[in-house]
Amino acid sequence: MSKDTSSAVIPSQPHRRYNALTDEWLLVSADRTSRPWLGRVEAPPPQDLPAYDPSCYLCPGNVRANGEQNPTYDSTFVFTNDFAALRPDGPEASFEEGLLRAHSELGTCQVICFSPRHDLSMSRMSTAQARTVVDLWANQTAALGERFEWVQVFENRGAAMGASNPHPHGQIWAGNAIPREAEKEDASQRRHFEATGHRLLLDYAEQETGGPRELGGDDEWLVVVPFWAAWPFEALVIPRRPVSRLPDLDDRQRSSLSDRLIGLLRGYDGLFEEPFPYSMGWHQAPFDGVERLHWQLHAHFYPPLLRATVRKFMVGYELLSEPQRDITAEDAAERLRAAIDGAVPRTTLQGG
Ligand code: H2U
Ligand code: ZN
């Protein structure tokens, strides 16, 4: 693939960008942030958390909403969500009447605690502690992949993203339907693979390396603000070798991932000097027995904040037409890189 983009310049006026992963477009209108209305003010998240909170339903030994008692775990802890959105048993049923269609969906929802420490967010973990989270994601994926076709690992962090509790935790939902986001990514990755013989995200990682949107990386991983980012400080984490699913990551990839994630998350927390809210999650190939050589594992980070206390809302035009962003992906990457390096911003290398 040619990296010669020297004559190409990203438009600085309002423009649309193509999301190669989902085959969708979005609107980029830089400089609109100077408009007078600055949005709703978010309350800053609590900063001084205790290591143990007797009222937390995730802390070791505490009692959950359904009356069950957590074990006094000392590393990670997994339980079936007491208010699960998917359940593994129940009658198979379907409904079809003209344009109206529905069918039952079986699955399961897990809550996964990253640490017994109520205050130990992933951004503050050591490499070894973050590695236990990576291994947890991979092990739970492998187990659920034996029973279900789609395994969605994710984390909501912060009240701004609807997380119910600051205790470091994530969720895994597994079911048999291939959901909308997965379907779009599957189709794009398949098209690219059939046309070029390459994985779309490996070609993308190569094209972004050393560019203005790179946030850091090593020989195993690339961390980048995607060219097509919709959320202000969105990030994409891609392994540089072909990997389809979390359990396929080897020891070296897992350890380096732990460091890359800690780096990104510290950068996020440093950006506005407070715990940074986000939804993150892994997209991995479905476990449906279909060969998916085109599918490259990756993680999305979708943080909602535009400034310290101002959140980006996906409303109006975004809901009705297509996503729109104000600061460019290149500017966001520059600020995030500075927060990650704790250093002076690098100047933009090309375009934008
Ligand atoms: P979030 O913080 O991302 O919402 O995840 C916490 C989940 O924990 C949430 O889905 C579940 C909620 O249903 N939960 C329990 O399973 N047991 C409880 O005692 C409280 C909350
Ligand atoms: Zn807790």
Describe this structure in words.
- By secondary structure, the chain is of the alpha+beta class.
- It has one domain: 2-Layer Sandwich (HIT family, subunit A), CATH 3.30.428.
- The protein is built from six helices and 14 strands.
- The strands form three sheets. A nine-stranded antiparallel sheet has the order 3-6-8-7-12-13-11-10-9, sandwiched between helices.
- α1 packs across α4 and α4 crosses α6.
- The two termini are 21 Å apart.
- The C terminus is likely disordered.
- The structure holds 5,6-dihydrouridine-5'-monophosphate and zinc ion (ZN).
Structural descriptors:
single chain; 352 residues; alpha+beta; globular; disordered C terminus; binds 5,6-dihydrouridine-5'-monophosphate; binds zinc ion
Count of structural domains: 1
CATH fold category name: HIT family, subunit A
Q: Rg from C-alpha positions?
A: 21 Å
What's the CATH superfamily, by name? HIT-like
Q: Indicate the low-confidence ranges by residue numbers.
A: 343-352
Overall pLDDT metric: 91
Label the structural class.
alpha+beta
Query: In the CATH classification, which architecture applies?
Result: 2-Layer Sandwich
Summarize the entry for a quick read.
The chain is of the alpha+beta class and 352 residues long.
